[in-house]
TrEMBL record:
One of its GO terms (cellular component) is plasma membrane. PANTHER family: INNER MEMBRANE PROTEIN YDCZ. This is EamA-like transporter family protein. It comes from the Bacteria. The lineage of its organism: Bacteria, Bacillati, Actinomycetota, Actinomycetes, Pseudonocardiales. The chain crosses the membrane at residues 12-35, 47-68, 89-108, 114-136, 148-168, 174-193, 205-229, 241-261, 266-287, 293-312. The keyword Transmembrane helix applies. It comes from Amycolatopsis thailandensis.
Amino acid sequence: MGRGESVEPAGRGGSVISLAGAVSAGVGLAVQSRLNGELGSRVGDGITATLASTSVGLLLLLAIVPLFPAGRRGLGLVRAAVRTGGLRGWHLTGGVCGAVFVASQGISVGSLGVAVFTVAVVGGSAVGGLIVDRFWGGDGTPRPITVARTAGAAACVAAVAIAGNGAWGGSGTLALVILPVFAGVAIATQSALNGRVGAIAGSPWPATLINFSVAAGSLALALVLRAGFGGALPGHLPAEPLLYLAGVIGMGVVAVATTVVRRIGVLVFGLASVAGQLLGAVLLDALTPGPRPSAATFVGVAITFAALVLAAHPRFRRSETVQDARLTASRPR
């Protein structure tokens, strides 16, 4: 464990608060997906739309984080950890994973719809969460792959598939699904990386600033490379300020994820986030013009929360505690 890093306590009350925070982050992701999808459709280019909304969040973070002592101190601790080896350079690349996820929103949601996009992301994040937790975890401590955790992940994927019943299209849709599946794996990795940086910084906001800086740089580089190979750049961006709130929402989502993933782990955070995304999608469908939520969607939401209980409830994690101790004892000192 790196110098200055601390493992969050895992009391039941704190875990409930962390789960509630993760669900809230999922609701934010549902709204972010809708906004990025709309912006991508208006611009005609998902990467440009994503860079625009991410830049809004980055500018706000650059203006706010250095104003507070905790922000300045956290950035200094991260720099010191990189110098001394407590953090590796690749620990700071969570923003690349986030850029892949947010870009996939702008590219895929307009064609796939939120339901199918979410199914694909959940499949990738469930597998990614199990693997990342097994070898690292949100706080640097491995968490075993248990029957309860695997069943919870599988039930969550099935629940989201049920919620998206009827939204699947033909072969073109299946080809587009590959990107959000990869984005799901990336988002699981991002949570662990940002959790590590946040633990060193002692605050989620320096980690969020680093995440947005790397994400914006990655997206800008992608645009430059595409232009170098003859790709055309969009001529203008929409003037509606509401469309750019995705970047502001993303600030909160990353900060919450950075904080709670150290307490509940990557997989459980992912499942809680998915529950929030489905809940948010239902609310959006109910409150905005368009199709109303179907009965299958409500069934999917219920199963998702049941899957979250299965993976997170202490009753189903007794054997995990023993395996946690074995994994920790087997790690090289």
